[in-house]
Amino acid sequence: MEPDDEGSVLTQLRRGTLEYCVLAYLAQGPSYGQDIARALGSDPVLFGSEGTLYPLLTRLRRRRWVETTWQPSPAGPPRRYHALTDEGRAALRAFAQTWEPFRAGVDRLMKGAQ
Amino acid sequence: MEPDDEGSVLTQLRRGTLEYCVLAYLAQGPSYGQDIARALGSDPVLFGSEGTLYPLLTRLRRRRWVETTWQPSPAGPPRRYHALTDEGRAALRAFAQTWEPFRAGVDRLMKGAQ
DNA sequence: ACAAGGTACCGAGTGTCGCAAGGTACTTCA
DNA sequence: TGAAGTACCTTGCGACACTCGGTACCTTGT
Question: If you placed Cys at A30, which of A83, A99, B32, B64 could pair as Cys (CB 3.0 to 4.6 Å)?
């Protein structure tokens, strides 16, 4: 893929934030893969493809930031619901405190560049 | 390294933005490696170590976003000055237009998570 | 009954890029 | 002459978003 393709700029931007975006979405209530993909995908800026999501969710599970339960679907195969743990909430708060000054720093530099 | 270490969160955040931060700094005037490192390093949020910078500058040069000239230093080895090209300025503008909605999207999700 | 299509989950392989550590070279000054 | 400061550069590594491909479940139409 071309390195100066705009898509790849977004790809790089999403690194490190995507998993916290998922956490933030889960903070509003438990959800399952396809729903998360649709929700974050509705803002095409935040989320690329579904193939990204499942490895990410596995990572969150391994870190015990989410706990999962299988639940039957009204129509279709069962869904794996992901619920934030206390550790997950703490990680999300920690991220928010890192994100804030970072975003401020980038904004300041960008503003100075015009 | 611990995955929930705060340093590594920043490392991931910097991906994709760091090179545009350098471009933004260069938009204020040509500069050389050590000076860029000091300038961005003064905000410890944006910049980690010097080892990151030179590969990054090489990348910018290869994409013709900067042009370099060697100039003698008042004291010490010669410095390689990096100046933004028109292409570099265009890339910076394009990034600013990608960054804006991205940052807005993350902010919105983070705000909704409390 | 059984094929087709929608829903849902998952994994292997790839490439990019920030980082740590280590290395080279030039200049000045004691 | 050797130590200290400045400046540039490379190697090896790890994290993670992405692409592509695959499996399984359930409903519906014929």
Answer: A83
- Domain spans in chain B, listed from the N-terminal domain onward: 6-113
Contact yes or no for B9 and A43 at CB 8 A: no
- Give ∠ CA A4-B16-A103 in degrees, rounded to 5: 135
SS3 A34: helix
Are the beta carbons of B91 and B17 closer than 8 angstroms? no
Pick from B86, B103, B79, B74: nearest CA to A13: B103
The two structure tokens encoding residue B32 = 């050389």
Residues of A in contact with B110 (CB under 8 A): 20, 24, 96, 99
Residue B7 has a pLDDT of 58
Q: Report mean pLDDT in 10-residue bins for chain B, 114 residues.
A: 59 95 96 95 86 95 96 91 97 95 94 82
What's the topology of domain B6-113?
Arc Repressor Mutant, subunit A (1.10.10)
CB-based contact A19:B104 (threshold 8 Å):
no
Smallest Cα–Cα separation from B21: which of A52, A87, A106? A106
